[in-house]
Amino acid sequence: MFAPNDIPSRFQLRQASMDDFEFAEALTRNNMGGYYRRHHLIWRGDLFLASYRESENFILELDGQAIGVLRITEEGDSLHIRDVQIAEGYRGHGAGTFLLDMSHRWARERGLRELQLRVFIDNPAARLYQRMGYRVAGPRLARLGSIRHMTRPV
């Protein structure tokens, strides 16, 4: 598989283990908490754990410190980006772009046709996804219209 750390970058990406689960869940729950409240959803740690076990999970580091999480799954001819989570204070400095670029490279290397993700309609990250070529593909798996399904070709 494409090795993300072969690309010159200030970020390092490593495969996560179950030892990283607590960090990944806490970061995701913290980042998504406001959206869950606004859209009347309830965080389910058991569902996150099940998804974590089924996903390929990565930890983004800067200077040896964990600052982000990337979780992906392969579904048919698509790479589904389950989570791009960046810790507060590190957003807006290229970390999300780095993770999306790595996802795109992996999808291309695997011979997949598209990337897909879901995003809350009021999440400012949707602007980043659009800049990186993602387009709204409909309300797939959307709950009450609060989540957009987005795709981009590889």
Task: Summarize, please.
This protein has 154 residues and is α+β, with helices and mostly antiparallel strands. The protein contains four helices and seven strands.
Describe, in plain words, how this protein is organized in 3D.
It is a single chain. The protein is globular. The chain has 4 helices and 7 strands, in the order E-H-H-E-E-E-H-E-H-E-E. The protein has a 7-stranded mixed sheet, sandwiched between helices. It has a single domain, classed as Gcn5-related N-acetyltransferase (GNAT) (Aminopeptidase). The chain has about 150 residues and is of the alpha+beta class. One of its GO terms (molecular function) is acyltransferase activity. Its EC number is 2.3.1.-. It is an enzyme of class 2 (transferase). This is GNAT family N-acetyltransferase.
Reading off the top of the CATH hierarchy, the class is best stated as Alpha Beta
Structural class: alpha+beta
Approximately how much beta-strand content do the residues carry?
A: 25-35%
Distance between the termini: 16 Å
**Which topology does CATH recognise?**
Aminopeptidase
User: Going by CATH, what is the homologous superfamily?
Assistant: Gcn5-related N-acetyltransferase (GNAT)
Radius of gyration: 15 Å
Give the overall shape, derived from the CA principal axes: globular
> Total number of helical segments?
4
Largest sheet report: 7 strands, mixed
Are there runs of 5+ residues with pLDDT below 50, and where? none
Number of self-contained structural domains: 1
Looking at the overall shape, the CATH architecture is 3-Layer(aba) Sandwich
Helix content: 25-40%
Instruction: State the order of secondary-structure elements, H for helix, E for strand.
Output: EHHEEEHEHEE
> What is the arithmetic mean of pLDDT?
92
GO molecular function: acyltransferase activity
Organism: Paraburkholderia denitrificans
Domain N-acetyltransferase: 11-154
Enzyme class: transferase
